[in-house]
Structures are given as structure tokens and as C-alpha cells.
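Data availability (excerpt). The following record was deposited with the supplementary files.
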Amino acid sequence: MIEIKQIEPTKANLAKFTQFQIDLYEGNPYYVPPLISDDIATLLPEENPAFDFCESAYFMAYRDGKPVGRIAGIINRQVNEKSKSKDARFGFIDFIDDHQVSGALLKAAEGWAKKKGMTKLIGPLGFTDLDHEGMLVSGFEELSTMATIYNYPYYSEHLEKHGYKKESDWIEFLMEVPDAIPEKYNRIAEIVKKKYKLKVLKYTSRKRIKKEYGHALFHLINEAYKDLYEYSMLTERQIDYYINVYLNLLNLDLVTLIVDENGKLVGVGISMPSMSRALQKSKGKFFPFGWYHLLKGLKGKNDRVDLLLVAVHPDYQNKGVNALLFQDLIPYYQKYGFKHAESNPELESNAKVQSQWEYFTTRQHRRRRSYGKRL
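Predicted structure:
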């Protein structure tokens, strides 16, 4: 018999909620665990500023007192107001290969959503686009990244059996870092620089980049991504939060800003050494020894770089600004010994983004999907 319990969002309960996933994937060589403390902060209403416009409920499934699954129900009122919809989201979903378990979890989230007046359940999605989203449907034997969901192949079959249908797909590419900047990229970058009077900015001080372009960076993300699937516009409180959370971690050599002649930010590229192996070794815990593996991941030898974010202002999209970003970044990739670059998820319908990789040797190695069901 499956027992579903709605759990109160306390740190202790959410630690167990997160630990279930880590235990479920123990020994899987492709799974990358989250930092438990990060997931707790995301799920706690008093810590995550997305709760200014979101609400959530968390459920765990038990059999004979043992946890066998988990799910979060989320309502993002901001996105619903923009799209004039009554959608709830499900996320943070994991379960053993048992249709009773997955069905009971989804029914719990569906029941909660209906009580809240929602008419559709979609996911997996987080509170905003800076959370993990999209169920893996191919690429199960590829090492995951810190920015993406990993799940077993049986997940999608369970969703479809329980009446969920495809909403949207994301695709991911693994690129070879070239020995030299592609000649066409160099040529395009120089033309764009002169034509639009653009210049590259690099920083060595986190304090300065936060002060001068911290807010502008996230406002640019809002402008660049506002029309994408289920995008949730970042508020000022969220921006303040993410400036402190993310900018402190970055190697500024791997952050490139593009500004116009008036100093207005029109493009940004943010990369980070892959933390996948470090997170695997940490097992989701910073203490007692997780910090060592994470620091080594940031500072030590690494042949893979994650492209966390590339954003170009809509006025400059399809005008070659991406070439300017990578003209600057590629020499740094070479300096740090990176051989491969992870694109991370891109909507399959976003031809603008995918066109920027045409001068690189690439392999489309993962696909992930969101599902929806009318309630």
C-alpha cells in the first residue's frame, strides 16, 4: 500500500525530501546530485524570493514506512497572469519504477492544484527558469550537469501512462573547444564591433561587476528570455538574491559583457568549469569534505566547461553579437585546458540560439521534455 504524506516545509523535512533523490541514484555514474543546502533554500518560502508570487506543496510517497517517491506542486501566479492561464507546475519529482507510486504522487499534486482552482498541471518545472526543468528523455548515458535534471529512462513512460502529453522539448549540445577561434567568428565579430560600436568588458573585481552591471545583467536576461516558454520574469528581490548567490562563485575570466557606445549592456556570456564530478564526490553535502571537492572542481584541472548563460538583447539578436562573446571566451577556454563545452538546455524551437553553434564541432547529446495534463 502506498501512503502519500504532505510534508511541512521545514529544513529537516526538506533535507529528507532532497536526500531521497540522492539515495535513489546512488551508484549511477551519470547522475549529478544537487547541494542539499541549495535545494532546501530553493524550497523554503522564507528563503526563496520567488515565493513573493509563488506557492507550493511538497509530497512524499511511502511504502511500509520507507520513502519511495517525492513531488512538488508549484503555482507561479506571475506566469499565469502573463499567459492568462490557470496552470500549476510539478517539479522535484522522483520515484521508484512502480506505476502505483508515480500515479499516487501525480494524483496528490493534481488534487492540490485543483483545490487551488488550477485547470492544468505541467512539468517538470521549478519556481522560475533558474531552477532545473525538463525531464530527460534521451541521453541517459551522458554525464549530467549541475544545471539540469537527471532521471531514469522509465520516468517518461510513467508520465505518458498517467495521461501526460508533450508540452515542449529542450535539446543540449556537447561542443569541442576549437584550437583557434573559427575564422568566420573572428570576421563576424570584427564587423559587428565596428558596425554597432560595441566593446567587450572584462572584470577582475566581483564587487565592481556587481555594482556596475549586476542588476543590468539580470534585466538583460529578462529582456532576452521574456517570450520563451513559461519564462518567469525576475523581480528586483530575486535579482538581489541571485547577484549574491551566483556572482560570488564565478571565475570572472569566464564572464564576458558586451556594451554599446553608451555603456548599455547588450550581451553577456557566463561560463563555469563543470562541477559534475565535484558534486558527485560531495554527495550533495558541503561538510565534512564536500567543500574540498567543490573547491577542487572550481580551481583544479577540468576538461569541461558549462555555458551557464548566453543572453543578447532582442535589438541585437541575429546580428552576430554571439560571435563577439565567443571571440573573447574561447582563448580563456584554451587557457584553462577545456576540451569540451556543454550548451545546457535550449528550446528545440529556438533556432536563434542553435545557430550560434554552427561553426563549432557539436554533438546533440541530450533531450528533455515538459509534459502537461488537463485537470
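Summary of structural features: The chain has a mean pLDDT of 93.
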